[in-house]
Amino acid sequence: MRFCVGIAAVMVFATALGVLEEAEAAQRERLGREDKWRIVVDKVMQPEVGWVTEEWMVKAASDAGFNVFCPREGARNLDAVRQVTAWCQKYGIYHMPWIRGTLGTDGAEADGKRVVWSGGGEQALWSINSDEFWEWTHKYIGAYAQMSAENEHLIGVFNKYTVHRKMVSVLQQLIGSDVKCIQSMFLDKPPGLGVGQPYHQDSYYLKTDPETLLAAWIACDDADPENGGLFVVPGSHHDPVQPHEEPVDPTQRNVYVEVRSARSRREQAVPLKAGSAVFFPGHMLHRSGHNRTDRRRRAFALHYANAKSRWLNEPTALYPFLSVCGREYPGCL
Ligand SMILES: O=C(O)CCC(=O)C(=O)O
Fold first, then answer.
1. For residues 303 and 183, is the Cβ–Cβ distance under 8 A?
2. Range in 183-192, 267-276, 291-300 the model is least confident about
């Protein structure tokens, strides 16, 4: 009898936890939609105690009606970030780490890799083309993404969408129960300026074994053939990876390579409304057009793969990959 009472108590507890999680998820879903962002960047309380965050500051922000706490310092201390997120959860608000998108250089090893302004002046900041800058940026953004996947009260950069449960439910159907995100890109193609990407297969760039690469391309603006939307070659996901050569169009040459043979195949435009997404496997031939309109064309593109696949690319690629759902496997992605 006592055993039955025990089981019942555990079940009630588990159900209560489930309800709590759902309520939290619903609250997070409302943020930025029904609930307007009310963000406080704290430059007032932190200095009182030497530019660190203490619990009373998070409570004060919550009591004052803010729903996002963004401390001016502390984003580079990952233990502190985790702690502030836990306090935000306790007080029912969200944590947005504050990180400047520039990194100072401090020595001669930065020669030739500093920011050079159009007027010719150099600044002691790593250039955004330097590996140093990207390794540093990835270290923090990747860590926030991982923490945010574990606790919704941390608002990471774009990762809300990377690990969004609607996304996860599609990924589980298309990839399996163990999924990693191996790349995310914000693709801004400004009006009249944005150059399209010629026909290519994502598996040419991102090699996995077994091949499980899957792209999710989310339109942030309405995207159509005129403003740089996507095109695909139907059926090409069954093709092997094809030779990628210098693009025919000179404006695409500095950045891209092209599967030229795709030009003679039947293509299909994939117009998308803002907020909708298309999923396609790594062998699918696809391209985007130039933006010849006065409309914006922003997109957020993600590449996922099965966590059991091995990574066959540059060993210097930026590990660790973000675990989206399920288990991780040693020696794999
Ligand atoms: O958004 C674009 O212009 C093209 C993106 C693309 O094809 C890709 O990410 O593989």
1. yes
2. 183-192
